[in-house]
Design goal:
The complex is a heterodimer of chains A (about 425) and B (about 425). Chain A contains 14 helices and 15 strands. Chain A is an alpha+beta fold. Chain A has two domains: about 230 residues, Metalloenzyme, LuxS/M16 peptidase-like (Cytochrome Bc1 Complex, Chain A, domain 1); about 180 residues, Metalloenzyme, LuxS/M16 peptidase-like (Cytochrome Bc1 Complex, Chain A, domain 1, 2-Layer Sandwich), CATH 3.30.830.10. In chain A, the strands form three sheets. In chain A, strands 1-2-3-9-4-8-7 form a seven-stranded mixed β-sheet, sandwiched between helices. In chain A, β7 and β8 form a beta hairpin. The longest helix of chain A has 19 residues. In chain B, α1 crosses α4, α9 crosses α15 and α10 packs antiparallel against α11. The radius of gyration of chain B is 24 Å and the shape is globular. Chain B starts with a strand and ends with a helix. The C terminus of chain B is likely disordered. Classes of the chains: A alpha+beta (about 425), B alpha+beta (about 425). The interface between A and B is large, with 74 and 75 residues.
Chain lengths: ~425, ~425
């Protein structure tokens, strides 16, 4: 089989990228960015902390593994049979790293020289797991320290508590790294089981951005990628009720001003539907609460929020929500005023002038992101794992109407599906 | 395409730096005012800069101000703030898309620059001071930011450690400032401080990004031409922190899960890049002595980082671990530094460290903000070198220089932040 190639281009933004469908089963995303010194690369699998129940074509039934195993696996892949991966990167000058999120595990490097050698290292170590009970044991202490470090962050705790309050059954309510207790159950056999299920090239993508040469990259991929059969992976999630698990969750922590996260639980989506939903949610969240909105002005002038106020759309496999966060002495009042503003927009419709301004601003942000190789890799990664074209966002944004937002606001901001997380002294 | 850099002294204490590269789709202008840090001006400068980006005499409403920036394709006028040793650089930064990337080729870059200049030279001030409503709101922001410094426990440990490391020096003041100073801020006095900044502070203007940015240069210089400037203080960014006669140790118990250990070392060895290279080899890289031994071999810490404050000639190592492992981690950190001083590292380790440091330096060419930060740092070192020029210099550093730099490091301060509950349990036992 030969590598097939598809080119995607957007003239207005002045950017293009290529997808190489490699015979090994891997899709390779390349964005050539002339004049940039840095090359960024990411090798990612659709496997994150929420994927705790799964089966492959070889399994009879679904299996459930301990929480935090995707993150543990990420740590362990950095250790080869004979050396540490950082020692290999040290020879090329690349800065290697990795992270695990709720729905993906990503291995990255950035470098200014020797990018092909670094790419070879990346492809090799991610495809060559080596775990023994001894090496797995050695990592347990380091990961426990990572969990403890994270537990010292009230902002992080506030966010995780919100997920617990919003979701009844979905594993997104569990910390990505698991708990000090859950990681005690992880062993080499379980790590291999998860690796073999999720680190299948059909379930992975490779993304590279920088001043790179496509033929050279392809040659490295041909040499280093091991063909893999499609393991027919299936993942399973428990049924998630419509309602939130609890309306208010509170924890005490030493903080300057109480922290809050306010989340609106929405239905999950996939592919193009997810892309459009995400765009609508982002536009609506801006209309409701950006720094030029009437609500922001009111909250700020009443002293109910400060400079730390922000918002985000949070989504992944089986979950989607719109979240407002900040600092306030009266978080529940902030929630009530956000709900009032949403109800007002539902009644009165959208301010057309602000809609057009926000569209323009969103377009500006999209173009801006092509200034940076790392952001380009992250955006391509997001689009690739979602199985959509990166430039679809530009087209959807151009076509978006006020009516589209009004058609979606009831589901995206259902005031009966709201949870609040508070951290206070 | 490549980076073009030039620095001009325009007189009256104003420096102009141009950093252009047409690979970028945006342009950016920074205007920094440089002041020596003191307990008071951290809070006052912070509030002045926040007020300047809230409104101006032409757009008096914050909502309208933000709306206008969004209309200009999400352009931004933000506070720009950084520190170099005992000095603070604070001011404004305006950034926007290049005109050619707007829909229909709208001309936005000049408008954004005009807005920034209005903020800076024509703020929303009357006989009572800054707009009173915004003064109160922004003052509260400053107060909240000081209070919030306790939220990040690792950062908190570093703030408290720096108070002891730099005791009696301007650098002892945290970037957030002190609560009592923030509470004392008064509107009319703040206007006087704002006018003093314009008149007497050293100014660094940096125009960067796509070369379209050049058309904003004359606007900015013309605006400065119209204001009086005198009594501008000379600046020497490099003021080495004196070594304490004996290392000082502190421990603070707070509501925290993991113990944070901060160790500061001071040195008389005065070569920035040899020191940086040694520190990278010691604890800056993922293959460093600290990573390989304290984390990988002994599994003591998840994070451990070593950094260099070159204007103060101070190395700070910070890490997190179980309280019972704190002494062991400290011993191992000292042992690894001693190993480097004795030359216990391979040529390959040194070569790899040079490569890693050069990668970091050269990557500064790839974002507008990193390019600006690189040259701003160069000024504080009294140099104007490109990343490539510094890399050339790094390649010539010898093993002997590295060992000498490690040997010259002296432990000055140890600051530990540990869980309050542990003490009670220990006492019970």
């Amino acid at each position: 089989m030969k590598t097939e190639k598809t080119v995607y281009k957007n003239d207005k933004i002045g950017a293009q990228y290529t997808i190489l469908h490699h015979p090994s089963g891997l899709d390779i995303y390349l964005m050539k960015m002339e004049g940039f010194s840095t090359v960024n690369a990411a090798f990612a699998t659709r496997y994150g902390s929420v994927n705790t129940t799964f089966k492959t074509g070889d399994d009879k039934d679904f299996v459930t593994v301990p929480m935090g195993i995707a993150h543990y696996l990420e740590h362990k892949l950095f250790e080869n049979e004979d050396c540490d991966v950082f020692e290999l990167y040290a020879k090329t000058g690349a800065n290697g790293n990795a992270y695990t999120s709720f729905d993906q595990t990503v291995y990255t490097f950035s470098c200014t020289d020797n990018y092909l050698d670094s790419l070879g290292i990346l492809l090799d170590f991610v495809q060559a797991p080596y775990f023994t009970e001894q090496t797995v044991e050695k990592e347990r202490g380091i990961i426990a320290q990572e969990i403890k470090m994270c537990s010292d962050s009230p902002e992080r705790q506030c966010f995780y508590n919100l997920l617990k309050a919003m979701y009844v059954n979905h594993p997104v309510r569990i910390d990505i790294a698991g708990t000090v207790e859950s990681i005690q159950e992880i062993n080499a056999e379980l790590l291999y089981k998860c690796y073999n299920a999720f680190y299948d090239l059909h379930n992975m993508i490779l993304v590279i951005a920088g001043d790179v040469d496509e033929d050279d990259i392809l040659a490295v991929c041909d040499e280093h990628l091991k063909s893999s059969k499609d393991r027919q992976l299936e993942v399973s999630f428990p049924d998630e009720p419509y309602e939130v698990a609890q309306e208010v969750i509170s924890e005490s922590f030493t903080v300057g001003t109480p922290l809050f996260n306010i989340g609106f639980k929405c239905d999950a989506a996939k592919g193009q539907e997810l892309l459009k939903k995400q765009l609508c949610a982002n536009m609506l969240i801006q209309l409701i609460s950006n720094s030029a909105s009437p609500l922001y002005k009111k909250l700020y002038e009443l002293g109910l929020i400060n400079n730390a106020f922000s918002s985000e759309v949070f989504f992944g496999e089986g979950y989607f929500s719109c979240i407002f966060d900040g600092e306030s002495n009266e978080p529940l009042k902030v929630r009530d005023m956000i709900i009032e503003e949403i109800e007002r927009i539902k009644r009165e419709g959208i301010d057309s002038e602000r809609f057009e301004i926000i569209k323009k601003s969103a377009y500006g942000s999209l173009v801006w992101e092509f200034n940076n190789t790392e952001i380009c890799v992250n955006n391509l990664l997001g689009a690739g794992l979602m199985r959509v074209d990166l430039f679809d966002t530009v087209d959807h944004l151009a076509a978006l109407t006020e009516q589209d937002l009004m058609d979606n606001i009831d589901e995206l901001f259902d005031t009966k599906r709201v949870a609040v997380s508070i951290i206070q002294n | 395409m490549s980076v073009s850099f030039s620095k001009t002294e325009c007189g009256r204490g104003i420096g102009l730096t141009r950093i252009y590269d047409d690979k970028f789709k945006s342009v950016c202008s920074y205007i920094f005012f440089v002041t020596k840090i003191d307990k008071h001006n951290i809070a006052s400068n912070s509030l002045i800069s926040k007020l300047l980006i809230t409104s101006n005499s032409k757009i008096k409403s914050r909502t309208a101000f933000n709306k206008e920036l969004m209309r200009l394709y999400g352009s931004s006028i933000a506070v720009a703030s950084t520190r170099a040793g005992d000095y603070q650089m604070i001011g404004l930064c305006a950034s926007c898309l290049c005109d050619k990337f707007t829909i229909g080729g709208e001309q936005i870059s000049g408008k954004v620059t005009d807005m920034m200049l209005d903020c800076l030279f024509s703020p929303d001030i009357d006989e009572n001071g800054f707009n009173e409503k915004y003064f109160k709101m922004r003052k509260q922001d400053v107060i909240d930011a000081v209070k919030a410094s306790v939220n990040d426990k690792r950062g908190y440990a570093l703030i408290k450690a720096r108070k002891e490391i730099y005791k009696g020096e301007p650098s002892e003041n945290s970037a957030y400032g002190e609560l009592d100073e923030a509470l004392k801020l008064e509107n009319k006095a703040l206007v006087e401080e704002y006018r003093k900044l314009l008149k007497s502070a050293r100014v660094e203007i940096i125009v960067a990004g796509h070369s379209d940015a050049e058309k904003n240069v004359s606007k900015i210089l013309d605006a400065f031409d119209k204001i009086p400037r005198d009594e501008i203080a000379d600046i020497d960014y490099r003021a080495f922190s004196p070594l304490k006669p004996e290392p000082a140790a502190f421990e603070e118990k707070i509501d925290v899960n993991q113990t944070k250990l901060v160790m500061a070392f001071k040195t008389g060895y005065d070569d920035i890049y040899v020191n940086k290279l040694m520190i990278m080899l010691f604890g800056g890289a993922p293959f460093s002595k600290l990573f390989m031994n304290v984390r990988e071999k002994l599994s003591l810490c998840y994070y451990r980082a070593a950094g260099f404050a070159d204007t103060k000639n101070v190395m700070i190592v910070d890490s997190g671990m179980e309280r019972e492992n704190c002494e062991r981690a400290k011993e191992e950190i000292l042992a690894q530094l001693d190993a480097i001083a004795k030359g216990d590292f391979t040529d390959e380790e040194l070569d790899n460290t040079k490569l890693a440091l050069c990668t970091g330096f050269k990557s500064n060419n790839d974002t507008v903000s990193d390019m600006a930060a690189w040259y701003l740092t160069q000024f504080t070192r009294n140099e104007l070198c490109s990343p490539e020029e510094i890399c050339e210099r790094l390649l010539c550093v010898t093993r002997e220089q590295i060992a000498e730099a490690a040997k010259a490091m002296r432990l000055d301060t140890v600051y530990v932040v540990s869980p309050a509950e542990e003490t009670e349990e220990e006492n019970e036992n």
